[in-house]
Design a protein that fits this description.
The chain is an alpha+beta fold. The protein has 4 helices and 9 strands; from the N terminus they run H-E-E-H-E-H-E-H-E-E-E-E-E. The longest helix has 11 residues.
C-alpha cells in the first residue's frame, strides 16, 4: 500500500525516471514562466526593428509623400500662411521633436524633388513664391542650405544683392533672393537632416521682419 502511495506522489510532482533509474523533472509540461508579458522591455531585435521603420512613420502629422519621388525618405508640408523667412524656418522646425525626424524649410537637392514641388504633387496647392531652405545670411554670396548640406543642386539665385539674403522659388522653377523680411508661403521638409542654426544667423536689421 505504501509503495502505491509513493508512486502516485512521484507522478504528481512531475518527475520521470531515466534509464539509470534516477528521477528527473518532467520538462515536457509547459511552464507559465515562459509567457512573455506585453509590458516586457524591448529587446535589441525590437529596437533594431524600430530603427529600421520607414522615416515617414516618425514624421509629424500633416507631412506627406510625393508619389513622383518613389521611395524617397522625405515627407513634405505645404504652408499657405505667409511668413518672413526666419519665422517660416522656425515654424517648420517647431513641427518636429526629439522623438521624430527633424523638420526644416525644404532643401531642394535633386531635379526630381524640385520638379515635384513645382507641380504641386502633394495636392492642389499652387507652387509660386515659396520660401525654401537656402540663404547666404552667413556669408554674402555663399549660399548654403539650412541643414549645412552643400548646395550641390540649387544654382546661384537671381537678384542677389545686399539685404536680399533669403531664397524663394517661383512657379517657373527660378530661384531668386528676396529680403528675409518679406512674407511668403513656404514648404517644410521632414527627413534625417537637422537644421544647423549657424547657417542662418538672425538677419540684419530691416531684413528680418522685426
Amino acid at each position: 500500500m505504501s509503495r502505491l502511495y509513493l508512486l502516485a506522489l512521484v507522478a504528481g510532482c512531475g518527475f520521470q525516471a531515466n534509464n539509470g533509474g534516477q528521477q528527473q523533472p518532467n520538462d515536457a509540461a509547459p511552464s507559465t514562466d515562459a509567457v512573455v508579458s506585453s509590458d516586457a522591455p524591448m529587446t535589441d531585435a525590437g529596437a533594431d526593428a524600430m530603427a529600421d521603420a520607414p522615416t515617414g512613420a516618425q514624421c509629424p502629422a500633416g507631412y506627406d509623400t510625393i508619389a513622383a519621388l518613389g521611395n524617397s525618405a522625405s515627407r513634405y508640408r505645404f504652408v499657405s500662411t505667409q511668413l518672413a523667412w526666419i519665422d517660416a524656418e522656425r515654424d517648420c522646425e517647431d513641427d518636429g521633436d526629439m522623438m521624430q525626424r527633424p523638420t526644416h524649410l525644404i532643401v531642394l537637392d535633386s531635379v526630381a524633388e524640385k520638379t515635384a514641388m513645382i507641380t504641386g504633387l502633394l495636392g492642389t496647392v499652387a507652387i509660386n513664391d515659396q520660401w525654401i531652405g537656402l540663404t547666404d545670411l552667413d556669408e554674402e554670396g555663399e549660399f548654403e542650405y539650412v541643414t549645412n548640406q552643400a548646395a550641390t543642386y540649387s544654382a546661384t539665385p537671381t537678384g542677389n544683392a545686399d539685404n536680399k539674403d533669403c531664397v524663394r522659388i517661383k512657379e517657373s522653377g527660378a530661384e531668386e533672393t528676396r529680403s528675409c523680411a518679406e512674407t511668403n508661403k513656404f514648404v517644410c521638409e521632414c527627413d534625417a537632416n537637422r537644421a544647423a542654426p549657424s547657417q542662418f544667423p538672425n538677419p540684419p536689421d530691416g531684413n528680418n521682419g522685426d
